[in-house]
Amino acid sequence: MRPEIHVSGDDVEMVTQLKNYLTKRLKYLLDMPGTIGIGVSGGSMPPIFTKALFACDADLLNWKRIRIFMVDERYVDKDDEQSNLGTYLKLFPPELAYVFVPIPICNDLSLTARLYEDNLRRILLPEQSGTSPRFDLLFLGCGPDGHTASLFPGDRAEHVTEYGWVGVVQDSPKPPKTRITLSFASLKFAKHSAFIITGAPKAHVVRAIWDRDNTLPASMARPYNDRLTLFVDEAAAKSLPSRDSSEESDSRSPQPFD
Ligand SMILES: O=C1O[C@H](COP(=O)(O)O)[C@@H](O)[C@H](O)[C@H]1O
Predict the structure, then answer these.
(1) Where are the domains of the chain?
(2) According to the UniProt record, where is the region Disordered (predicted)?
(3) What is the pLDDT of residues 188-207, one digit of tens each?
(4) CA 112/CA 124 separation, integer angstroms
């Protein structure tokens, strides 16, 4: 099944599209039992995601049930300007800091990854079945090199945790060099994933995702159930097939996986 595509003319339109998507997903998830786990990315995503989230109706922002976690993090303290979590904490009201799954950065990188995995399993259980996570909603970004989270071309992530949910990267081509990241396996078991991608330098990555070209991590990270939505601006959409092209249709229905 092809991903659902939303092309926006500007940030305001993209925020509205994201707000509508979040509204639909939260309405569904709030009707189900348990904790709602939303994975988010750093880089350019925090401001636009935060605007869209807080544009949702207040009755959907049930902070007793929603927990937000980083799909990757730089190996820096959360007060460092490079910290993805730190960026969100600066954008969220301080009284909501508790909704973020803590990333216990310590002086041992592998231990940091293991402790993060423990936190994810403890906070997002019991929805997690067995050893594979079932994250409710993932918001992924990508770089012009096709990386997503901190999964870079060249298979640089090392698996150091008991369940393989979280890996470590020590030679990131994008500074800082050292990071922790959700693994491909944990990203691919998501119930719903969405990419937020803007700018012409990433148009080839958007096309790779559309074409299921698994030479790039961003395309390799699409969920097994094919429930994937792309939020792109016009520049990032420029390599997609034209609206009326035959390439667009793909009637394969999504795998039942929820
Ligand atoms: O370093 C990172 O890069 C990607 C993409 O960032 P962007 O600024 O090009 O959108 C981001 O998704 C990831 O979370 C971050 O750690």
Answers:
(1) 4-239
(2) 238-258
(3) 999 999 999 999 999 999 99
(4) 18
Ligand 1: which atom is nearest the Cα of residue 45? Answer: 10
Q: Summarize the chain as % helix, strand, coil (round to 5).
A: 35, 20, 50
Helices 45-54 and 84-91: crossing angle in degrees, nearest 10, is 40
User: Considering the entire predicted model, what is its pTM?
Assistant: 0.93
CATH code at 4-239: 3.40.50.1360
Q: Determine the distance separating the centroid of ligand 1 and the alpha carbon of 59, expressed in angstroms.
A: 30
Q: Spell out which residues line ligand 1, taking CB within 6 angstroms.
A: 41-45, 72, 84, 141-143, 149-150, 174
The rounded distance, in Å, linking the Cα atoms of 235 and 202 is: 8
Q: Please report the pLDDT score of residue 254 as a whole number.
A: 44
Alpha-carbon 58 to chain mean position: 23
Q: Which of 80, 83, 150 to mutate to test the pocket of ligand 1 (most atoms within 8 A of CB)?
A: 150
Nearest to 101 by CA among 125, 134, 131, 75: 125
Residue-wise pLDDT tens digits, 125-150: 655 556 778 899 999 999 999 999 99
Q: Which of 11, 14, 40, 45 to mutate to test the pocket of ligand 1 (most atoms within 8 A of CB)?
A: 45
